[in-house]
Amino acid sequence: MSDTQTRARPRVGLFATCLVDLFRPSVGFAAAKLIEDSGCDVEVPEGQTCCGQPAFNSGDNADAAELARRAIVMLEGYDYVVVPSGSCGGMIREHYPELLAGDREWAPRARHVAARTWELTAFLHEVRGLRIEGVRHDGVVTYHDSCSGLRELGVKAQPRALLAGVAGATLKELPGAETCCGFGGTFCVKYPEVSDKMVSEKAADILATGAGTLLAGDMGCLMNMAGKLKRMAMEQGARPVAVRHVAEVLAGMEQDAPPIGESK
Amino acid sequence: MLATSNEFRANARVGLANPTLQSALGKMKVGFPTKRAEAVAKLPEFDALRDQARDIKNHVLENIDWYLERFERRVNEAGGHVHWARTPEEAREIVLGICRRLGARTVTKGKSMIAEEIGLNAHLEKHAIEPVETDLGEYIIQLRNEAPSHIIAPAVHLTKDAIEADFRRAHSHLDARRDLTEPQSLVAEARGILRKRYFEADVGITGANFLVAETGSSVIVTNEGNGDLTQLLPKAHVVLASLEKIVPTLEDASTILRVLARSATGQEMSVYTTFSTGPKRPSDLDGPGEYHVVLLDNGRSALLGTEFQEILRCIRCGACMNHCPVYGAVGGHAYGWVYPGPMGAVLTPSLIGVENAKPLPNASTFCGKCESVCPMRIPLPKMMRHYRAREWERRLGTRVSRLALGAWAWAARRPALYRFAAARAMSALGWLGRRHGSFFNLPLASGWTTTREFPAPQGRTFQDLWRERRRAGGGR
User: Residue B143 and residue B141: Cα distance in Å, rounded?
Assistant: First the structure.
């Protein structure tokens, strides 16, 4: 590749998020493929751990700031930082500047990284104008709007616009798509009964759409909904629903991994 | 009122297991949001009005002393009295003092959350004065000896059937065959009983949605007209209000009124909006002989200048709880004090101390819906997070959660160790879950696995696989 070509392709740092890194590498590879398809070079900065959101949302601002500074050092050299999660994306884009606002050295660096950070589908659609072509998914899918992506980053139309390019897929809108699934990070551990009530109602709504596949853009919500849907299938004979991160479908990489919570 | 906010989790379990509550909440969480959305859609300038409303209150909060003193002067000029109460105790004594001086035996009450906050009913009853709630919702919960479960719909936790049973029990002197199957017939029955009580009452107590500094007026909004009869007929009208209800002008009150009812019930305006200025004048045909405003602080002035100041913009519309998925799951009583839902999760620790309301700021998924519908644009999740930070600093959380979060952050600061441990842990979990794809039972995540499968990891970490593939492919 010549120098000019290299320069024309923006360098993207893919921040995989801990849940993708630990639980579902297939989402990371799907995200990387999509970003490359959109005309960018992808790198996965070394030493990724956690964006610090669990600490931040638990009031542990010192640890959260420490993790934010680590991530900033790792990410500040890229043209863009792309995150396959509205939740972690929102943490970097909205909350790093807030968390480090009082720090004269780090506040501008936090704002610099925040301004270049995008949730995956927003980046592909808004920044890169990517059109999905040559990808097939036969069947009805429904979509859950994860809260942080939706309300902190305005992710709503972007995944739908991308999905419109997937041949064979029909999107059936989920009633209450904008209602929280009950995951909430540490919330589901601290208040499991309340969380279960919320995800039970979410699962009932999903089943009522008749869709065979549920998609969303955040692993936390996806694991929560997949776990509930599978238990309902096991114990109440509910219809099984395949649950996936939207990137896997958009990248045409569904064959690389069984749906979340399923075995090969 | 004794707070059980620290027992949120146990309270929530009670709520989750209560079929009447669940049925009522099922209706509420569809009804209120639908009506609000329709009302907002019909008013293109709604968001601009929210900005104006926010700015009005921000201005007030920056100059609250000046506006309060101006309000007091205007009230005095109109022949009324302002009483400053630092604490609930002082407020109760002021009200009791007025009642005693007038020899009051019964008082009628319009809806007032401040009356709940200061525990007024119990205090009056202790001194042989009977409080009579005249708002239908408040009347119902008074019959049941319950606290309100919602700030604008106190009996929203009940179904029509449950209320019918309460009426038959409490109004046993009436014909058992009467029809009480429709809301209208329930209203008619309560009205029939309350009508007499309005004329008997010696003192009428209302809350206030606004206090207007330029005129010395108090403003209430109701849908039943009960507030008007409560305040007009007795010898004295006592207004219970907290400091932050003040707005500079009538124009400002009218701006905020435009977002209030739409946010609350989806009405353009509530049915009655009543402005009261001073007692009955010689030329007036009706009106109370005395007009008193009890201004309650109860910790609010201490919020000024802190990261919690913005909660003082709250106009008590209830939109945050109407849209909150946690409130919609557990109901208002689970919050254990006067103010439930997201605004309660901020106001309760502000007023009774975070150590007495530890779970409330944590009982949120931070879904952000509350902030998105708040007419006053109060950043509720952000303030809940500030309280979580206070709890973290004071080590008020459980040891287990502190240890777990601390360990996670400790490892996350050490990428090499993290990578080493993560690779092994995920490999083991992936292997254990390879057949079933998920876990039916995980020892450290039993809260999750009691009701949900826990999806198994794929087995390798993304970073290890990426490194491996890049090395094999020589990079692109």
Answer: 5
